[in-house]
Write a structure and sequence with these properties.
The strands form three sheets. Strands 6, 7, 8, 9, 10, 11, 12, 13 and 14 form a nine-stranded mixed sheet that branches. Strands 3-4-5 form a three-stranded antiparallel sheet, with helices on both faces. It has a two-stranded antiparallel ribbon with strand order 1-2. It is globular. By secondary structure, it is an alpha+beta fold. It folds into two domains: 102 residues, no CATH class; 97 residues, 3-Layer(aba) Sandwich (Aminopeptidase). The termini are far apart. Strand 10 and strand 11 form a beta hairpin.
Length: 280
């Protein structure tokens, strides 16, 4: 498979230079949390959603150590941003985050390692054929409630996140899809586009519809949507495969032509912080 420039640095919308695998997620969450607490501090984009004070998915400092080397003074400012709002938070670090002492600095400040994520990328090649008896449709803003309801129930996100999710279908930077069993929505997935990068996320399947190829079909639909709008690189992530944890998402991504690029460690500010997105 031709991956093209998936590891080449690219500028974000604010001028930083970070790899596509991080850029897509960063800009997607900046969009998802539009109107919430946001600040660029110490080379990171700090995002806070005060209605989920224990969530290290919605409260994070993204891009730290990539566009510029982190500093201990910058870490102090980042910490102040979240402490002021009473938020537990996460700091994801790629293997290339600078300086090399950064993980030790975080651990000295009381951060602990959470569940790490594997970051994936692929080029704009067509998606493989995926067998499923479910029908995939794109959702506009007139069916935003379908997208929000299925994702919230499938993924277990708190009810307070529903208004954030309802804004995505119909947003010019997002393409949102659902898989249906007849007229019943079974699964959803989103595509966020920034420049030539497409980030695939916001995906979930209701328990009663699992093992029917829903996410494979939704991956294929989103890959094709990314191709249609000229994405050069498609990126996403899922949890690091560990013994005793299901790896269905990982296998789905590999079948869809994504290649694992690196494992990104999640550093958490406290035991209350949780990267699953299910804790309010």
């Amino acid at each position: 498979m031709i991956l093209g420039n998936v590891l080449d640095p690219m500028p974000s919308s604010r001028g930083r230079v970070i790899p596509p695998t991080e850029l897509g997620e960063l800009e997607a969450f900046r969009s998802l949390l539009a109107g919430q607490a946001q600040a660029e501090i110490g080379g990171a984009v700090c995002l806070g959603f005060e209605r989920t004070p224990g969530s290290a998915l919605f409260n994070r400092a993204l891009g730290l150590g990539l566009g510029e080397a982190a500093t201990e003074a910058g870490l102090e400012e980042i910490d102040a941003f979240f402490i002021e709002r009473g938020l537990a938070y996460g700091i994801p670090l790629t293997p290339d985050a600078q300086p090399p002492e950064l993980p030790a600095w975080l651990e000295a400040r009381g951060f602990h390692r959470g569940y790490a994520w594997t970051k994936f990328a692929r080029g704009p090649e067509p998606a493989p054929r995926i067998g499923s008896d479910l029908r995939v449709e794109e959702l506009g803003d007139d069916r935003a409630d379908v997208f929000a309801d299925v994702f919230a129930r499938a993924y277990g996100t708190p009810e307070v996140t529903r208004p954030l999710l309802e804004r995505l279908p119909g947003n010019q930077s997002w393409r949102c899809f659902a898989a249906f069993d007849g007229g019943t929505p079974a699964a959803v997935g989103g595509l966020f586009v920034t420049g030539g990068v497409g980030w695939l996320g916001a995906a979930g399947t209701l328990p009663e519809f699992r093992r029917r190829g829903a996410q494979g079909a939704l991956l294929a639909a989103r890959i094709e949507a990314g191709r249609e709008v000229g994405c050069e690189t498609l990126v996403t992530e899922t949890g690091e495969p560990l013994e005793g944890r299901q790896e269905g998402s990982y296998r789905n991504l590999v079948r869809a032509g994504f290649e694992p690029r690196y494992v990104r460690q999640n550093y958490l500010s406290s035991v209350e912080a949780d990267t699953s997105g299910t804790r309010a």
